[in-house]
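User: Before I run my own analysis I want an independent prediction to cross-check against. Here's the chain; please return only the C-alpha cells and, at the end, one sentence I can use as a sanity check.
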Amino acid sequence: MDFCYNPKYNILSNINISVYKGEMITLLGPNGVGKSSLLNCITGLIHPQKGCVKLNGQNLQDIPRKKIAQSIAYVPQKCNASFNYDVKEFVTMGRTAHMGFFSTPTRDDYKLTEASLERLGIKELQGRPINELSGGEQQKACIARALVQEPQLIILDEPTSALDYGNQVRVLKLVQQLSKDGYAVLITTHNPEHPLLLDSDVWLLGNDCYLQKGSVNEMINEKNLFNLYGIEICISTIETVNRNVCFIKSLKN
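Assistant: C-alpha cells:
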C-alpha cells in the first residue's frame, strides 16, 4: 500500500505486511517517518491511496468501526481521557465494542475489568480518578482497557515512554506474555534494546518511506541502526546475559 497527505510526497511506499495470531512485532523508526500513519492505516482511521488493509481477509474500509474495535485494540502513547472517570469505569469502557448502544456493563464485563486490573498490578487504583494518576499509571490503565476489549491484535504505541525503568521491564514482560497467550502484538519504540529483549520480529521504517522487515537478528544490526538514526550504535554479545545488547560508545565526537 501507499499513503500520503500531499500527492507530491509519499509517507509510506509499497508497504506489504501481515500480522498473525501469536506474532509479536516491534516497529522502529526516527521521528516523522510515518510510524503513526502506518498504525492509523492498520486501525482504519485513515485509508491508503493505493492498495488496502485487510482484517481476516476483508477490506477494512468495508467493516463497521464497532466490528474493527472487536478485533483491534490501540494503546496510545498518552492517555487522553475526556472526563475524569475512575479507573474501573475507564477500563470497563473497553467493553463498549461488545455492547449495544443503550447497554450497560454486566457483571461479566466487570469481572473482565477486575482481572485486567489485577494483571497490570493496578487493582488498588480502581477507585482513583484517571486524570489524577501518574503518566505511568495511566499507561497501565490504557493497557488494561485494551485487554478487556478482547481483541485479536493489540497495537501499543511506545508503551514504555512514560514509565520508570522497573515498570518498563514489567510492561515488556506483559507484552511478551500477550504474544504467548495468542494475541497478535505490534509495538512501536525508539529503543533498539526492546526487540532484542523481546526476541520479536522487527519492522524498520526509514526516511525513504519504505519498510524493511525480518527477524531481530536480521534487522537489528549496526548498519541498519545507523541508517535509521544517523548515529553509531554498537551491538555486542554479553556472555553473562547470553544476548546481544545495544550501546552508544560515547557522547563525545
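Sanity check: The first strand starts at residue 24 and ends at 28.
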